[in-house]
Request: fold
Amino acid sequence: MAVGARSGHEEPEKRPDGTEGAPETGVPEAAGPPEPPEDSSQRGSRGVKQKKQRSFWKELPILIGIALVLALLIKTFLVQAFSIPSASMQNTLLEGDRVLVDKLTPWFGSEPDRGEVVVFHDPGHWLDDEPTPQTNAIQDALSFIGLMPSSQEKDLIKRVIAVGGDTIECKNTGPVKVNGKALDEPYIFPGNTPCGDKPFGPIKIPKGKIWVMGDHRQNSLDSRYHQDLPGGGTVPVSKVVGRAIVVAWPINRWTTLPVPDTFDQPGLSAAGAVAPPVVGLAGAVPLVLWRRRRLINKAAQAG
Reply:
């Protein structure tokens, strides 16, 4: 019997009951595409409620609390704003300027160095005659977290001129000398002399202390004017809050506060002047001991 080739478009096969349909293959017909999974958002009708998103107004107090904690940590360990209360650092700093003070490096054992502008707590009776400004609760709160300079703490800001171990002096109209080296001080207020109206020295600065002076020499009650107090006008390093690194306000006064070049001149450091003899002595001791042992050995052999 001839069999015709299938074209792929066969006519439906006749069933015994006279109906037409696809040939039986033993495989049940497809029941159609599966239904998509039920959306969880549609379960509300079944008693499952959709979780609502947290309200912004409920999250706002949390965000404010985190911001305040961060501000307090920054003020305590990193930087703090201070306001310049007087003209003693003019023209480097003007009255009303806001400076940012680095409080981080002292945590790693760093001590103030010559030429740096530093903020320090009253070392003892320097500000007895200065009135404390009156503030309100809002100002006190902002000062506590570091968003405003503190007006209650009696702090001062001056330039470090000498550190522990240095010898400093200023005779007649100057210049100021540190360990015998004259300082070139272009930051001094125009018309002032390096000594101002208070020559001093020579003074040996004790270890752990610093000698500070204002850039407006004739308008600064600094170390020169407190030599009759305990410490002889020096400031303990432990009283230093940190180094002023930048003038942050007003915007038109923005500038950094670098160390002037005169403090980098060779031979200024007292430690540097002592180093060569110390190194020479350290090198000579082994040589002397070696020579002495050699002479003893020779004497023993001759005997």
About this structure: The mean pLDDT is 76. Residues 82 and 149 are 5 Å apart (CA to CA). The first strand starts at residue 13 and ends at 14. The radius of gyration is 41 Å.
